[in-house]
Specification:
This protein is mainly alpha-helical. The chain has 18 helices and four strands.
Length: 436
C-alpha cells in the first residue's frame, strides 16, 4: 500500500520517522486547549480544556491518516499555530459565538477542498505577492510570541506605554525565562522533541519549586462539550458580516500554510518533480478534509506541520510514518493528567510560544527590503498584526497598502486583480464595520 520498496525505505525507518515527527509537534496537544479554553466562561474552562485536547488528538490523528492513505506522504497534520489565536480573537473580540466560529472553519475547509479538487490553488497563490505572504507568516509569529511573553509575565501592561517589561524577580517570569533558555538551547542543538522537552522541564521545575502547583481537580475528560457543536447564524446579517470576514481569513491562512508547508517539506525530502510535489492535489485535499473533521470535533484549522521535516530527516518517505504519528496522538490521551497540570499554568507553555514565533520569522528573508513598494506593505502587515493582536487587520492593511503604493508609484500593473479586489473589499469592510 505504501510502496516501501519503491521509496527505498522500511517499516523500522518509517516507525522512527513517525515517532520523531510526533515528538517535534506534540506540544500542540497542550498548547491548543490552553489557547482555546480562553473563549469559554471560567466555570466551563475545565470541561472545555479536556474536550479541546481530545479534539486536538483525534483531529490530528485523522489528518495524519488522511495524508497517509490519500497522498502517501510522511507529512503530519495538527491544529495550526496562529490560526488558533485568530479563532479565539474572533470569539472574544468580535463577539462571535464559538459555535459559529467552528462553522466558519468548516466552511473555509470545504472551500479549500473545492479549490484543491478544481486545481485553483496555484492561480490564487500566484496572485498574492510574496511580500504579503511572508509578512503574514512573520506577523503571526510576532503575535504568537507576544502572547507567550504576556503569559510569562515578561511583558505586562503599562499606563504610560501600554506595554512594558515585567519584573524579572517575579517567580513566574523567572520560570519562563529559564524554560526559554532550556528550550532555545535544545532547539539550536537539534534535539528531537526540543519544544516538548522544554515544556516538560519547565513544568517539572515549576512543580518542584511550588511556582506552578499540580492540578488538583478530576482527571476525567469528554469530547461532549464541543463535539458537533459547530453552527451558522440564521438571517442575522450583523453576525454574517463578521463571519464572512473570518471565513476569508481562515481560508487564506490555510491556503498559505498548507501550500507553503507542502512545498517546503517536499523540497527537503526530495519529493519534488519538476518543482512540484506529485499527488499535491490529494495532499491538499487531505488538509482540507482534516479541517472539516477538526471543526466537527471542536478545534480550529488543521493543517500540515513543517515539523514533519524532522521525521523526513530521520528517513521517513511514505505515509506509513504518518500512521505511527497518528497512533501516538491517540495514545497521548492516556496522559491527560499531565497535560491538564500544564494547562493550569500558562507560563509553562510560554517559552514554546516564543520559540514558535521565532521559527515563523524565516520568510522575512524573502522580502525585497530594498523595494519600498514591497517592504512597506510587508512591514505594515507584520506590525499591525503583532501590535493589535489581529490577524485580520494585519492582512487587510497589507492588501490595501500594497495596492495603494503600487498604484501611486505608477507600478499598478504589477498588482493582480485579486489583490485589487480584496483591497477594495477590505476598505468596504472598514467603512461598514468600523468597530472591528
Amino acid at each position: 500500500m505504501f510502496k516501501l520498496r519503491e521509496n527505498h525505505t522500511t517499516w523500522t525507518r518509517e516507525a522512527i520517522a513517525g515517532v520523531t515527527t510526533f515528538a517535534t509537534m506534540s506540544y500542540i496537544i497542550v498548547v491548543q486547549p490552553l489557547i482555546l479554553q480562553g473563549m469559554f466562561p471560567k466555570d466551563e474552562q475545565e470541561a472545555a480544556f479536556g474536550a479541546i485536547l481530545m479534539a486536538t488528538c483525534i483531529g490530528s490523528a485523522i489528518g495524519c491518516l488522511l495524508m497517509a492513505f490519500l497522498a502517501n506522504y510522511p507529512i503530519a497534520l495538527a491544529p495550526a499555530m496562529g490560526h488558533n489565536v485568530f479563532f479565539v480573537l474572533v470569539v472574544t473580540q468580535l463577539k462571535v459565538p464559538w459555535q459559529y466560529a467552528l462553522g466558519a472553519v468548516a466552511v473555509s475547509g470545504t472551500a479549500f477542498a473545492l479549490v484543491s479538487v478544481f486545481d485553483l490553488r496555484e492561480r490564487i497563490m500566484r496572485s498574492v505577492p510574496q511580500a504579503l505572504r511572508a509578512g503574514i507568516a512573520a506577523g503571526i509569529g510576532l503575535l504568537i510570541a507576544l502572547v507567550g511573553f504576556e503569559w510569562a509575565k515578561i511583558v505586562v501592561a503599562s499606563p504610560a506605554t501600554y506595554v512594558t517589561i515585567g519584573s524579572l524577580h517575579n517567580p513566574v517570569a523567572l520560570l519562563a525565562v529559564g524554560g526559554l533558555a532550556v528550550t532555545a538551547l535544545l532547539v539550536v542543538l537539534n534535539v528531537r522533541g526540543a519544544i516538548l522537552i522544554g515544556i516538560a522541564v519547565t513544568a517539572l521545575v515549576g512543580w518542584r519549586t511550588g511556582i506552578t502547583p499540580a492540578h488538583d481537580g478530576a482527571s476525567t475528560f469528554s469530547l461532549a462539550p464541543t463535539f458537533f457543536k459547530l453552527s451558522l447564524p440564521g438571517a442575522d446579517w450583523t453576525v454574517w458580516r463578521t463571519l464572512l470576514m473570518a471565513m476569508f481569513v481562515f481560508f487564506f491562512l490555510d491556503l498559505f500554510d498548507s501550500v507553503g508547508t507542502l512545498l517546503g517539506v517536499s523540497q527537503r525530502g526530495g519529493f519534488l518533480v519538476n518543482g512540484q510535489p506529485p499527488r499535491a492535489k490529494r495532499a491538499l485535499l487531505s488538509d482540507a478534509l482534516a479541517t472539516v473533521f477538526g471543526a466537527s470535533l471542536g478545534t480550529s484549522t488543521i493543517t500540515a506541520y513543517v515539523e514533519s521535516s524532522a521525521g523526513i530527516a530521520s528517513g521517513g518517505r511514505t505515509g506509513l510514518a504518518n500512521v505511527f504519528t497518528a497512533g501516538l496522538f491517540i495514545l497521548a490521551l492516556l496522559f491527560f493528567p499531565f497535560f491538564r497540570m500544564i494547562g493550569d499554568n500558562p507560563s509553562i507553555v510560554a517559552p514554546a510560544l516564543i520559540i514558535v514565533g521565532a521559527f515563523m520569522m524565516l520568510p522575512l528573508k524573502d522580502i525585497l527590503w530594498d523595494d519600498l513598494t514591497e517592504a512597506i506593505p510587508a512591514f505594515l502587515t507584520i506590525a499591525v498584526m503583532g501590535f493589535t493582536l489581529s490577524i485580520t487587520d494585519g492582512i487587510s492593511f497589507g492588501f490595501i497598502s500594497y495596492a495603494f503604493v503600487k498604484l501611486g508609484s505608477g507600478r499598478g500593473r504589477e498588482v493582480s486583480p485579486v489583490v485589487y479586489t480584496f483591497a477594495g473589499l477590505f476598505i468596504l469592510y472598514y467603512v461598514f464595520h468600523p468597530l472591528m
